[in-house]
Amino acid sequence: MHCSFFTFRQHNKNNGEISAAFSQNSSNQNSSSDQDSQKSSTISSSTTQQSSYSYSSDTSLSSSTTEASSSETSTTNNITAVKNVLQSGFKIAPILYNGEDVNKAMNEGKAPQNTVHDGFILGYLKDDSTARMSSMGGAYDQPYEISEGILTIGDFQFNYSENGNSITFDTYEKSNSDGSTITWQLSDYSGAKDSVDSASVQN
What we know:
Layout: H1 2-30, H2 32-86, E1 90-97, E2 100-101, H3 102-107, H4 115-119, E3 121-125, E4 130-135, E5 138-147, E6 150-153, E7 156-163, E8 166-169, E9 172-175, E10 181-188, H5 192-197, E11 201-202
Parallel strand pairs: 5-11
Antiparallel strand pairs: 1-2, 1-3, 1-10, 3-4, 4-5, 5-6, 6-7, 7-8, 9-10
């Protein structure tokens, strides 16, 4: 839209100069005083068009900058909100095995008996890029990243949404090498930090 506006203004300016030049030639045939009057009119017209273009351009840039700033602020606020939720601790646990309740699947022999035990993870955010996590008695660091609508921790990727003052995490479905699928759930867990830091093995 801005490019079309710019072209339109330049086109009018050129037409104005051509028209002025035409009038100037006609004036030359009549008298020098008419020529001076026509030059004054041309300068006045050209100055007015440039002033109008500059004002319109500046207004458009200001509006665009405001919209971009508002979007960046919203993204920053959401990222901060996610960090606040996970700062003190979180847990990641399997809830479905091939679309079926994981405990039911284990009881019926459809899922390995250690699915929940081995898959249960506790963690907390150590700094702006590292999460401290533990599973099966061992603690370790994992990189994490929070972008607009997506939280990535190690091999897990959870979509999230902000609604008022709350953050909601979607489940994450992950396929295994044996063809099975496990659905994972992320939730806050305030006691995670103590559990992770007291794990028997610290890597």
